[in-house]
Each structure stands twice: as C-alpha cells, then as structure tokens.
Amino acid sequence: LFAGECDFFFAATTIEGLPPMGAPEIAFAGRSNVGKSSLLNALTNRKTLARTSHTPGRTQQLNFFALGGPPGQETLRLVDMPGYGYAAVSKQKIDSWTKLMHGYLRGRASLIRVFVLIDGRHGLKDTDAGMLKLLDTSAMSYQIVLTKRDEVKKADIEPRIEATLKALKPHPAAYPDVIFTSSETGEGIPELRAAVAQLLAE
Ligand code: GDP
After folding, report:
1. Which atom of ligand 1 is nearest to the CA of 182?
2. Is the overall model pTM greater than 0.80, yes or no?
3. Is the Cβ–Cβ distance between 171 and 141 less than 8 Å?
4. I need a surface site. Which of 86, 100, 139, 168 has the fewest CB within 10 A?
5. How far apart are CA 79 and CA 25, in angstroms?
6. pLDDT of 116
7. How many CB atoms lie within 10 A of CB 161?
8. Cβ atoms 35, 53 nearer than 8 A
9. How far is the CA of 16 from the centre of ligand 1 (A)?
10. Is 171 within 8 Å of 155 (Cβ atoms)?
11. Does any ligand 1 atom lie closer than 6 A to the CB of residue 44?
12. Residue 186: what pLDDT?
C-alpha cells in the first residue's frame, strides 16, 4: 500500500466542496507544529507530499491524497486536516474551521478513522480537548499518535504512553492503543502503516 505512488488529488475548503465519496478515508489531525506534515511524508515515503511550516494565514482546507492506485482507482485516501491551536487566529477563522471539521466528521460514511497527532514531548494539551470532544460527539473512531519520539528520553517513553492511555479513558470514541512515532528516525512508522493496513482489512 505504501510502496507505490501517493498523489494529491483534491483540496476542499467547504463542506459543499468535498469530493464525492469513494475509497475509504483515513484522516490526520493535530495542532499546528505537531509534526503532521512530516509524519505524512514519512508514512508515504515522500519528501514533499504535505508541505511543512504552514503559516496561520494559509487557507484552511482538507487535502486528499490517493494511495494504492491513481486518483479514481485508489484503494485508500489519506486526508490531511487543517491544523488547530494557532496562537493568533480570528474567531471567524476558528468558526470556519469548526464548521468544516463538524461537517466532514459527521457526514462522511467513508471516513473510517482519524489519527490525532499529539506532540510526544508534551502529551495531551488543553488545545487538543476541543478536537477530542468533536470526535467523541461525532462518534468518530480515532487513535492517538504521539510524535517526535526522538526528542523524548528513553525512560519517558513508556510513562508518556501510559499517561496518554489514562487520559483517553473518559473518551468513548478513542481506540485504546497509542503509537509513538518519529519522522526523523522512522520509529513507529511501520506500526502506523500496519494500523492503517489493518483498518482496510477489517
Ligand atoms: P505540522 O505543522 O504539524 O505539519 O508540523 P511539521 O511537520 O511542519 O513539523 C513542525 C516542526 O517539527 C518542524 O520543525 C519539523 O522539522 C519538526 N518535526 C516534525 N516531526 C519531527 C520528529 O519526528 N522529530 C523531530 N525532532 N522534529 C520533528
């Protein structure tokens, strides 16, 4: 699945502008700077699939990528969700982000899982609470992926995973497993690929 091409094929800025449903979709969400672009690039073996270092002024959009076949014949779609938690963002921007996310998460039968990226150096933050709540209320199945494992001391890895699992207990839609990744060293990337492949096989 991850050996072949992965092509960008669609960007949606509104619910009305979403591409028609087709192959199963797996989406990636996270705070800005969590390492989402880097992880998508590592996952798909691309250097420039998802551009890193977005600026807050950039248009907020859902970016669709085709995997396992050219667009139109893909077996899976990866969806890059717009980052959240920018320090200085207008209420209008937050509202349009929320509207887009709400609409997508609630009305997308082909969306099978959302991977929520959390900075492994810090764990779950207040800024992530809104995203988890949105997923819980949408009854959308999601799984936490911790990032930047290479920046975390070895002795802190297991405790960080345990603390994250504990924090997820009150969240009904959270999958009770956490993958700790590094886009720098590639740690956790095979596990993440396996989790994606498993979802497709279900
Ligand atoms: P995004 O805003 O979530 O798309 O985050 P980016 O992928 O642009 O990454 C934000 C910053 O974190 C960049 O400076 C990356 O180089 C850095 N970064 C991302 N992933 C890792 C990682 O696994 N390890 C380390 N050490 N840095 C990372």
Report:
1. 23
2. yes
3. no
4. 139
5. 7
6. 98
7. 18
8. no
9. 31
10. no
11. no
12. 97
Tell me which of 4-13, 27-36, 53-62, 124-133 is least confident.
53-62
**202 C-alpha to center of ligand 1: Å?**
31
CA of 43 to the centre of ligand 1 (A): 13
Position in ligand 1 atom list of the atom nearest CA 31: 3
This complex has an ipTM of: 0.99
pLDDT of 136 strictly over 50: yes
Cβ–Cβ < 8 Å for 79, 40: no
Which residue type does 152 have?
V
Question: Does the Cβ of 120 fall within 6 Å of ligand 1?
Answer: no
Judge whether 183 and 147 are in contact, CB under 8 Å: yes
What mean pLDDT is predicted for residues 123-139?
A: 92
Give 33 Cα–ligand 1 centroid separation in angstroms: 6
Which of the four pLDDT bands, split at 50, 70 and 90, describes residue 29?
Answer: very high
What token pair was written down for 105? 């998460």
CA–centroid distance, 188 to ligand 1, in Å, is 15
- Ligand 1 binding pocket includes 63 (Cβ within 6 Å): no
Q: Which fold does the domain 6-201 belong to in CATH?
A: Rossmann fold (3.40.50)
Cα of 4 vs centre of ligand 1, distance in Å, is 24
Alpha-carbon span 178 to 175, nearest angstrom: 8
DSSP E strands, the chain? 6-12, 25-30, 62-67, 76-80, 111-119, 142-147, 174-180
145: left (phi over 0), alpha (psi -120 to 50) or beta: beta
CB of residue 31 inside a 6 A radius of ligand 1: no
